[in-house]
Amino acid sequence: MKAVIAQSDVVTAYGWGLDALWDGLMSGNSPIRASDRFAGRGFVSDQMAAVADLDVAPGDSRAMALLRPLLEKLAGKLDPTTPLILATTVGEIERIEQAVLENNPALTAQASPRVLLAHVKQLLGLQGDSMVISSACASSSAALTRAASMIRHGDAQSVLVVTCDAISEFVYSGFSALLSLSDAPARPFDAERNGLTLGEAAAWALVTSEDSPLAGGSSTAILGWGNTTDAVHMTAPHREGNGLSRAITRACAMAECPTKDIAFVAAHGTATIYSDAMELAAFRTALGTPRPIFSVKGGTGHALSAAGLVQILVCGRALSLGVVPPTIGLETPEAVAAGWATTKPTRIDPAIRALSTNSGFGGVNTAIVLGRGTQ
Amino acid sequence: MIRAASWCSPANCGVVTLDGAGDQWSTRPLLSNDELTKIIGRTIKYLSRMTGECRNSLCAAGLAMKPCGWLPKSQERPENRSASASRLNPMHAGLLAAGYEGCLAADQTYFRDYLASGRSLGRGNLFIYTLPTSTPGELAIALTLTGPSMHIEESANPLAALSRHANQMIADGEADAMLGIWSDATTSICLAIDGATGTGLLMPDASNPAAMALRLASLSHESHTHRGESSLVPSPGTLGEG
User: Could you say which of A190, A209, A228 is where a domain stops?
Assistant: First the structure.
């Protein structure tokens, strides 16, 4: 039974909704800005892709402030037994910051993603099974594979995947310490790239079977997937991209999709030197001949757990419209990216397959083959 | 099916296997570098950097994989392995983890240190362990687990949930074998699951992992008592020693 993304919504630094995200990417403009939010901290960068004018109510976390407007529109519209998967890396990490700053251990337990899961469940009025899935920066794409698997195995009629990670001092300081942050807006696959820009995003996707009445003509099919681990280093990727290329191969095999039929790739594309190089190596190994790839992170920044679902929703729109968006921030593709990374929108045949990939700490990789829901 | 279930608690550790032939147990946890190396059967770099939770999980994982024949047989790295590796080679095994408390402790450790350092420069080597997937990442490196790796937290029945997801991943062709590891700050439980059909090991009370560890210890002790003269079951205290 084929699983499809029947409905979805998203917020990124481009604004609220998929239209804002798509139009922003197609415009070639980036909402990444210098910010004084962590002024005086001495971090290696002040760049971030933050959601502008976010209304954080007293007592709310920034993650919940991102999620609440998205989920309130959905509340009461789902079968209460719909299983819920929350994909996040750190959830409401401000609770840990507060717990340590105020020396209040009681706040520590509030930082558990299980607490955020309970809030989401309550907000949506759901009473079915629920779980948190974390697979570093591949969390939401991994969650989507679990949802698709549950549909295939007949565990549920529909599964709701919700994802969110917000910019925090905790995470910003960590990536600064790792010297992973670019001092200018990220430039994925560019010869002059020098690091990532942190972003924040929230999104949800309702995954159903293709014959569900909820699956309309604009749905995106989840045709196959692969989850692998490099098993070589906690943070550095495998130099030749072995783990990612295996994930791509498995995804294509499950989708019964010859690699030649993959028309374009939504790459993780963080803009760090080694991660981008690893991805390009994996694409060459698994796909062979060049085809358009794009990364959204020169615009949305790296939204950690949410990164996967954000780019998958963009993929769905690209499949629907028959056009691949450009890579924001890319000016001069590095030599090995020539023929792959795109600086301008590229027309494609809508009746084809797309690939979306993510990788993260712990050597995790996820690859998903997507198609139009009607295929 | 579940082929083996192992545990590592402050009191003891061991493994219960489907046919009983691989049952082993010790009256104490085996967490020294030498003991862990002996369980895994190969030298593992970076053992000293692992947290207590991670070492517990490594001990449990090694104990469960060994009787299944899933442990790496040499020092070869994944990039050097042949693509034609046989089924149930660890290259095709993945890992699902549950239990979040250890990550919250790592989160606090990182942020406290960052504040103590003047709130301008954190320590990268602490930051990289602030994810729920930190322990699975370390175990994947140590045990050459190159299949799926993710943390799945279902509060209602964590071990049964891990088993269900693992079985689906195997059925989907994502892996030939999966480990399901639940851990808290002191205790780890590992289920070794493959794609064979059948009853497998039963989990009498999977909703309570701590009780499950006690039950596993009890099962192992009963097994030892009943087969006291059997060479198949080592005497208590011999596992990983000598």
Answer: A209
Farthest-apart Cα atoms in chain A, separation: 58
Q: Is residue A34 part of a domain?
A: yes
Under CATH, what is the fold of the domain B2-76+89-226? Peroxisomal Thiolase; Chain A, domain 1 (3.40.47)
Average pLDDT over residues A128-138: 96
CATH of residue A270: 3.40.47.10
Q: Contact B124/A129, CB-based, under 8 Å?
A: no
- Domains of chain B by residue range: 2-76+89-226
Task: Give me chain B's average pLDDT, please.
Answer: 80
| A/B interface, count of CB pairs below 8 Å | 180
- State the residue range of the domain holding A159: 3-209
Same-domain pairing of A93 and A65: yes
- Pull the structure tokens for residue B242: 């000598």
Same domain, A166 and A256: no
Q: Which of B79, B111, B138 sits opposite A234 (nearest CB)?
A: B138
- Together in a domain, A204 and A227: no
Which residues of A are less than 8 Å from B173 in CB distance? Answer: 250, 253-254
Phi and psi torsions of B83, nearest 5°: -70, -15
Beta bridge partners of A161: A85, A205
Single residue among A157, A178, A209 that ends a domain in this structure:
A209
Closest CA–CA distance from residue B185 to any residue of chain A (Å): 14
The tens digit of pLDDT for each residue in B163-176 reads: 999 999 999 999 99
Rounded-to-integer distance, Cα A233 and Cα A243, Å: 12
A130 close contact with B: CB closer than 8 A: yes
Q: Is the pLDDT of residue B184 over 80?
A: yes
Residue A214 placed within a domain: no
What pLDDT does A56 receive? 95
CB B135 within 8 A of CB B53: yes
Tell me if the pTM is above 0.90.
Answer: yes
Number of domains in chain A: 2
Whether chain A has a CB inside 8 Å of the CB on B110: the answer is: yes
Q: 79-98 in B: which are within 8 Å (CB) of A?
A: 79, 94-95
Backbone angles phi, psi at A12, to 5 degrees: -135, -175
Residue pLDDT, tens place only, A293-331: 999 999 999 999 999 999 999 999 999 999 999 999 999
Average model confidence (pLDDT) across chain A: 95
Is the same domain home to A199 and A72? yes
Residue A215, in any domain of the structure: no
Residue % of chain B over a pLDDT of 90: 44
> Would the CB atoms of B151 and A133 count as touching at under 8 Å?
yes
DSSP secondary structure of A185-231: S--TTBTT---B-BB-EEEEEEEEETTSTT--TT-EEEEEEEEEE--
For residue B20, the model assigns a pLDDT of: 85
Asked if residue A71 belongs to a domain, the reply is yes
ipTM of the shown complex: 0.95
Is pLDDT of B229 > 60?
A: no
Closest to A45 (Cα-Cα) out of A54, A36, A55, A53: A36
B184 CA to chain A: closest CA distance, Å?
14
Between A14-28, A59-73, B71-85, the lowest mean confidence (pLDDT) is in B71-85
Closest A-chain CA to B114: A173
